[in-house]
Amino acid sequence: YGSDIDLVQKTLLEIAENNRKVLKYPRPDVLFIDHADSALIFRLRIWFHVDDYWTVPSQIRSDIDRRFRELAIEIAFPQRDLHIRTLPREMTPVASSEDTDRVLPSQKPAMQESPHTD
User: Fold this and answer.
1) How many Å apart are CA 23 and CA 11, to the nearest integer?
2) Is 50 helix (H, G, I), strand (E, B) or coil?
3) What tens digit of pLDDT does each residue of 74-110 get?
4) Which residues are registered as beta bridge partners of 32?
5) Average pLDDT, whole number, for the chain?
6) Contact 67, 13 (CB under 8 A)
7) Residue 55: CATH number of its domain
8) For helices 5-18 and 55-70, angle between their N-to-C axes, nearest 10 degrees
9) Which residues of 14-53 are buried (b: 16+ CB within 10 A; e: fewer)?
10) Is residue 45 part of a domain?
11) Which of residues 85 and 114 earns the better pLDDT score?
12) H-state helical runs in the chain
């Protein structure tokens, strides 16, 4: 999420059109397929000679990776944020001897005012 959709579509088309083994007809096209959990999904459709079945898709993928890096377009990967509200007691970290010498701000005694005598 956050990528410029128009830039992604334009870039994918340029990559396909600049590959000499991609057929001019039918023309390459790009479809914006979906909003997935962690990504915007695009489909680049290209046509090429059957003899180039393995090489053209590999070339196209390499070109996409290179060009997206140049344009700072992120290729998403699945990720999840985990929020831990409580830990079971057996998973609570044990303090080391170094940690016991340190006083955390929450452990400092509250500052007390001395009583005023006039």
Assistant:
1) 17
2) helix
3) 887 777 778 888 877 777 777 666 655 666 555 555 5
4) 42
5) 85
6) no
7) 3.30.70.100
8) 140
9) ebbeebeebeeeeebebeeeeeeeebbebebebebeeeee
10) yes
11) 85
12) 5-18, 55-70, 97-101
Count of Cβ atoms closer than 10 Å to residue 84 Cβ: 6
Among 8, 16, 2, which residue's Cα sits nearest to residue 33?
8
The residue assigned the tokens 């999840």 is: 80
In a domain, 31, yes or no: yes
105: tokens are: 């701000």
Among 1-5, 62-66, 70-74, 105-109, whose mean pLDDT is lowest? 105-109
10 Å Cβ neighbour count for 56?
Answer: 20
- Which pLDDT value is given to residue 16? 99
The letter for the amino acid at 16 is A
Structure tokens at 17: 């059109």
With respect to residue 50, please indicate whether it lies within any of the assigned structural domains: yes
Report which of residues 116 and 3 the model is more confident about: 3
> Are the C-beta atoms of residues 67 and 44 closer than 8 Å to each other?
no
**How many domains, the chain?**
1
User: Per the domain annotation, does 98 fall within a domain?
Assistant: no
Q: Whole domain around residue 40: which residue ranges?
A: 5-70
